[in-house]
Amino acid sequence: MSRNLKLAHPRSLAVTPRINTQGKFRMPRVSVCDTMCAWGWTLMKTMLYKLTLKKRMWVSFVLLIAISIAATGGLSYYISARVIERNTFQLSQDNLNTSARVLDEKAKQILVSVLNIMISQPFVQMSKDSAAGKKDGYYGHMTAMNSAFTQAKLAEPSIESIFIATPIGEFYSASYYRNQGYSFYDSPLYEKAQLTKEPFWVEGHEDLLFQGKDRVISLVMKSISDSPNMYFVVNLNEKAIQSMLSDRHTEQEDQNLFLVNRNGASVLMNQPNLPKSYDKAFLEKHIGTSLRGHFEVGITEQYDLINYATLQFNPDWLLLSVQSRSDLLKDLSWIQWATGIIMLVCIIMAVLVSNVLSAILLKPLYHLQMLMSKVGRNDLTVRFQSHYQDEVSQVGHKFNSMLLEINELIDEVKDAEREKRKSEAKALQAQISPHFLYNTLNTIIWKMETGELDNSKSMVIALSQLFQLGLNHGEEWTTVEKELLHVQQYLTIQQLCYEELFDFDIVVSDDEIRTLPIMKIMLQPLVENSLLHGFEHMESGGKIRIELTSHNNHLQIVVEDNGSGMDADKLQLSLNYPGIEKKGYALRNVYNRLQLYYGGEATMVLSSESFEATRVFITIPIKGEV
After folding, report:
1. Residue ranges of the alpha helices (H) in 51-137?
2. pLDDT, tens digit, 9 for 90 and up, residues 89-143
3. Cα separation of 71 and 77, whole Å?
4. Which residue ranges run through the membrane (predicted)?
5. Spatial distance between the Cα atoms of 169 and 149, rounded to a whole number of angstroms
6. What are the CA-CA distances from residue 431 to residues 27, 457, 525, 585, 616 (Å)?
7. Which is more confident, 454 or 252?
8. Rounded Cα gap, residues 563 and 536, in angstroms
9. pLDDT for 152-176, tens place per residue?
């Protein structure tokens, strides 16, 4: 940020003209309140700038005392509130867990009662008749089962009724009047029993199996006997369950207890309804699949403290305990009043002793220390700014001068490093030419000695063009077109040297690629590597393919041959960690030059399948045209 840039205050009087619907300029209205606030802010800044450092520290000390007392009072209130909430959560959770265990034990007792019925002699005999389809003993079985029903109800008083549906008839206590217009096999209970195959519980509903329309909670389960299509329906009295839960929580008047399913619907219809916000999405967000716990949630302007526990006999049902946070913490208001009084007294004391303790408030010095910390984190753009002319400000101006000198030194180092990188790049390029020139001149001499003058002449011309393109007027960058022509001349020379050894193909996906800038003498070392190592043990049939494409503002180059291949993993490791492996001179040469010219934006990936495809895949950023 420029040192001359000044930040405008939110209450600034600066206004912007607007255009009304008639196309005329008008000035926006500025309220009297905004004007007074802006004037007051300007006056306060002017007075503050004229104060000495000591008086500014006095003002800061008074503010520090006020903030400290406010923070202490707020923290005291917060700690007290959290302790009360934690204790309340723990107590509520213990009560809730106990209630859940009671319900689980009651469910176990009911299952035991049902199992006792299933192993009783009358039920076993009835099951055999039902499996055989014998209906003539129905009334005898009905009478014999009454004692089993009575024992089950005595063992668990919350059982309202027990109903058994079989193919030969229905069985229930003789003291109940059956609702003949309602068939179990035509009911949703039977449909769900066929789908789940497991015992399931049904939320509070009117008992349609028997007359009286009592509200019940039902357990539906299939018999374990050999008789197919035989089901138990155990109805529990809803009022008895509700009474049991209410009795356990009468000591906490500000606490509401709910038995709901995970969709937020009430299991007991005669209990208060949960707020509409406590729906399925709410429960999934705050509870999920947890078995028990607690959390605090804000609903509109009220905050609720919620404990929950999952019932083991039906994991889809939850016990929720909801308490109002405001009611719970209403006795802590005295802390707020005490904080205000203490703050007032301490501010008065601060005014009396501020001159003694003002030396501890050196705000400008702290600001300078913060800037030095940023410089320590390599942020050299920071500058010390102050409207004051005190000693700390003078130190700050010296600090700014020091940063300017450091920036100048860094720029000089960067220029020197840039020149060093250019020198290293030229040195790496120089390593390529002698190696290639030595091999080519030997081949030309051999051709001339054997009388192949035309081939020798062609090779000399190609070599001349090769060096002309390689020199590139001393420039470090060339175009893709010239680089391709350079490697084409090289391959032409090698084809004359090694007749029928290989063919080559150069593919460019888009003509616009040919005009892009590229590091010179990059492809020739790669194809030379294919000839010297890939085709070393081949006499014919070699193929070299060079393909250039562009993707996502990057140029992608693939050099591929069908030679004997290489250990791609080991060579890739030698590129990334030069000290581990010294093989792959040509590849390492090109890779080092790529890092010098493009830095971390360039990549080289190697892959190899012997006599199938050995590839060098290079990706470099597109930097525009030369």
Report:
1. 53-119, 121-132
2. 788 888 888 888 888 888 888 888 888 888 888 888 888 888 888 888 888 888 8
3. 10
4. 57-79, 334-362
5. 16
6. 73, 26, 11, 10, 20
7. 454
8. 8
9. 888 888 888 899 988 888 888 888 8
Residue 603 and residue 554 in contact, taking contact as beta carbons nearer than 8 Å: no
Q: At what angle do helices 238-247 and 53-119 cross, to 10 degrees?
A: 140
Q: Between 558 and 590, where is the model more confident?
A: 558
CA-CA distances (angstroms) from residue 275 to 215, 264, 281, 300, 320?
23, 9, 13, 11, 12
DSSP letters, 258-293, are: EEEETTS-BSSTTSPPPPTTSSHHHHHHHTTT-SEE
Q: 478 forms bridges with which residues in the sheet? A: 518
Contact by Cβ (8 Å): 205, 187: no
Distance in angstroms (rounded) separating the CA atoms of residues 557 and 537: 26
Residue 96 CB neighbour total at 10 angstroms: 24
440: left (phi over 0), alpha (psi -120 to 50) or beta: alpha
The residue type of 386 is S
DSSP-H helix ranges across 331-449? 333-357, 363-376, 391-430, 432-449
Distance, in Å, from the CA atom of 292 to the CA atom of 580, rounded to the nearest integer, reads 57
Lookup: tokens for 301: 């302007």
Q: Could you tell me what percent of the chain has a pLDDT over 90?
A: 5
pLDDT computed for residue 104 by the predictor: 87
Taking 3-state DSSP, the helix, strand and coil percentages for the chain, each rounded to the nearest 5, stand at 55, 20, 25
| Residue 286 DSSP class | H
Q: HSE-up of 132 (CA within 13 Å, CB side)?
A: 11
pLDDT(464) > 50: yes
State the distance between the two ends of the chain, measured CA to CA, in whole angstroms: 34
Q: Are strands 302-311 and 18-19 parallel, antiparallel or unpaired?
A: unpaired
Q: What is the pLDDT of residues 246-268, one digit of tens each?
A: 776 555 555 678 888 888 888 88
What the block records as the tokens of 446 is: 């051999």
Can you read off the two tokens belonging to residue 102? 């009671």
Contacts 24+ apart (CB under 8 A), 335-343: 335/73, 335/76, 335/77, 335/80, 336/73, 336/77, 338/73, 339/69, 339/70, 339/72, 339/73, 339/74, 339/76, 339/77, 340/73, 342/69, 342/73, 343/66, 343/69, 343/70, 343/73
CB 309 within 8 A of CB 292: yes
Interatomic CA distance for residues 304 and 324, integer angstroms: 5
Cα distances (Å, whole numbers) of residue 476 to 251, 433, 518, 558, 621: 88, 15, 9, 22, 16
Residue type, 58: W
Q: Distance between CA 476 and CA 429 in Å, rounded?
A: 10
For residue range 412-447, list pLDDT tens digits in order. 887 776 676 566 555 555 555 566 677 677 878 877
Cα–Cα distance between 530 and 533 in angstroms, integer?
6
What 8-state DSSP symbol labels residue 287? T
Residue in this structure with the two tokens 């089950």, named with its chain if needed: 152
Decide: 435 and 470 in contact? Cβ < 8 Å: no
Amino acid at 560: E
